Amino acid sequence: MKPVWVVDDDRSIRWVFEKALSREGIPYKTFGLAEDAMHALEHDSPQVLVSDIRMPGASGLELLQNVKDRYPQLPVIVMTAFSDLESAVAAFQGGAFEYLPKPFDVDQAVDLIRRALDESLREEGGQESAPASPEILGQAQSMQEVFRAIGRLSNSNATVLITGESGTGKELVARALHRHSPRSAKPFIAINTAAMPKDLLESELFGHERGAFTGAQAMHRGRFEQAEAGTLFLDEIGDMPADLQTRLLRVLSDAQFYRVGGHQPLRANVRVIAATHQDLETRVRDGLFREDLYHRLNVIRLRLPSLRERREDVPLLARYFLAKSARDLGVDPKRLSEAAMSFLAAHDWPGNVRQLENVCHWLTVMAPAQTIEIADLPPELRSESKPSAEADWTLALQREVDKALLRGESNLMEALSRRFERVLVSQALAHTGGRRIEAAMLLGIGRNTITRKIAELGIDERTDS
Question: In the predicted model, is pLDDT for residue 133 greater than 60?
Fold first, then answer.
């Protein structure tokens, strides 16, 4: 997808768009003059253009005409004050997609841009509307470590043990390890060792000969044979029955096995990747897992972080899953409001990424509006989780700054810092019953400093020390 171009001579407006589009993961480019955008159009084009009407030099209407001459299908959103109604009408007559009245709500602006992006991508035949799915998503440092490990293992056939809570994406990592290995052209075969009875699991892993047991009407090739020269992924290895642990150990030690009921040894040219959500060291100590098998599997160990350990990835994952669900269902993608996104980021996610994906699918089907608010989230999620106090007050601060910038206010650092200090000092004094020394200690400042702040900020004390 090409970037969204924003053209406005007001630096604060450009800054607000840069911040909002960056937060939504939408690529952008900004210009201070219509002439600059016209020059850029000579060798490039945006996916959507957002332009002010009244600017020094060429106007937004002139830019609109220039764009429509070159790219008739490109959606153009014009920004205008309410007093510019005639200009807005002229913009529509000139082929504008929509107009955005100033002052505008940031969420409203982003919604409008998303609509224009959808329209633009549909006009292109949907070629960019469904980009190739990434293997694993994550910007958190803990996930970057996982990515680095996959890269380091790209030329290796070493056995890997993946640990992590249920729903953290262990099979995705196993598939990535296979895809980036020397065995990538060969099969990747997965089996959940906790999902089937012991007798059936043995046959599924090693295969069986005809007549090996009642109902064995024909010879069956097991997963080890199916994965020949490729990768076998053994999920939930911690739940494997004891006697099958012994058979698996022999395969890893001798690189050969027998089908159930068979007498001819078969070679096993297979890379094994195992995964578990359990603490294998504890299971070894409790006699539930063979220590020698544990050491055979634990050659290279990758631990996947839980989603609550990588909360900064929640917005990225949520947007991806909402878009994916929309594509799967053939509907327009929905978006999360800032408040709803903060709420999700503060949730502990016991089911991890899998739970988040399920919630996003539920929201795609059940949320009544295109913009999802906290009240639209599943009731059980709202009863389990509350946004953190930090998420609440930082979100409120973000909105206050955005509103002030859109009102054209300046000197924000001093004004907001003064309000921030006033709240801190006032609340500390209220907490200590007006005792300045105690309040100063709580705030980490000296008595002289708090006395000066009380005077500078005009704080009215009910009591004094």
Answer: no
Is residue 91 very low, low, confident or very high in pLDDT (cuts 50, 70, 90)?
A: low
CA distance 248 to 243: 9
pTM of the predicted protein model: 0.56
Least confident of 119-133, 247-261, 422-436: 119-133
Length of the chain (residues): 465
- As given in the structure block, the two tokens for residue 222 are 């097991």
Nearest to 312 by CA among 341, 351, 339, 273: 341
Output phi, psi for 172, to 5 deg: -60, -40
Q: Is 214 exposed, middle or buried (0-12, 13-18, 19+ CB in 10 A)?
A: exposed
pLDDT tens-digit map of 292-351: 999 999 999 999 999 999 999 999 999 999 999 998 898 888 999 988 999 999 899 999
The stretch 408-418 carries a mean pLDDT of 84
Interval 369-404: pLDDT, tens: 899 999 899 988 887 655 454 555 666 676 677 667
Mean per-residue pLDDT of the chain: 85
Domains and CATH numbers, the chain: 4-123 (3.40.50.2300), 141-304 (3.40.50.300), 310-388 (1.10.8.60), 411-457 (1.10.10)
